[in-house]
# Entry
Amino acid sequence: MIQRMGHVAIFVLDQDVAKDFYVGKLGFETKTDQTMPNGFRWLTVSPKGQTDLEIILMKVAPGPKLQQEDVNTIAGLMKKGAFGAGVFETADCRKTYEELKAKGVEFLAPPKEEFYGIQATFRDPFGNWFSMTQPKEH
Amino acid sequence: MSGMRRQTPSLLLHDETFRRLCRSRDLLAASYQAQVSLDEAAREACLSAFHFHRLFASAFGETPHDFLTRLRLNRAKRLLASGEMSVTDVCMEVGYSSLGSFSMKFRNFTGRPPSAYQKEARRVFGFSAPWHVVFVPTCYLANFGGIQ
# Structure
């Protein structure tokens, strides 16, 4: 019986840019950053409050599963904003919004009160977008 | 993995409290070899030892002591698997002064004594050095990394 999620993958186009964004701007911590002898780089990060969940920053590149045209298609869809990769949680959406904006994070929507809490939306440098939600206490 | 059981973190903490706890956690992580005391870490978070312990567990799903132990033993695993250091040297390197205590904790953590773990890692990975052991799911290696 599956009990929990250990790793989740987000496609990125450049892992250095991705690391700078998720670690340098969002404040996540690097869990593993290791390049294999054939050049494949295993890069995982975690939010500081959830370090047992590793987010794999997986480079979209030609390989066993993907041809170059697939890579081009995926990159196009990412830039178009087709991938809503998930929901991050914060205890203070408005404060975190101001901080991340000051660091250059691009927001698609500012904080707004919803029935479930306060939500803002931002995107990473490749077009993956996320909800950033301050949940309402019930 | 036997030994420490991680708890599911509870609801989100107050933002400023979480930030202070992160600073303390970073301090513990940066100084695990130098044996920064938990009292010092609590002071870094501007909390009493009691509240620091409780809120740390609430934020991160494990007590400060378990966090430090896990950090040290994961580091020990990598050093043992790299095959470049003896068990005694690894014990000292990760901040334990007693080989007996280190061996017992390692066994509880991994299910094997450090010497057995090192022997198995050498059998699996060979003696190539330097070798940074990274535990990557083989499906990702095969599907995206082209490594069979």
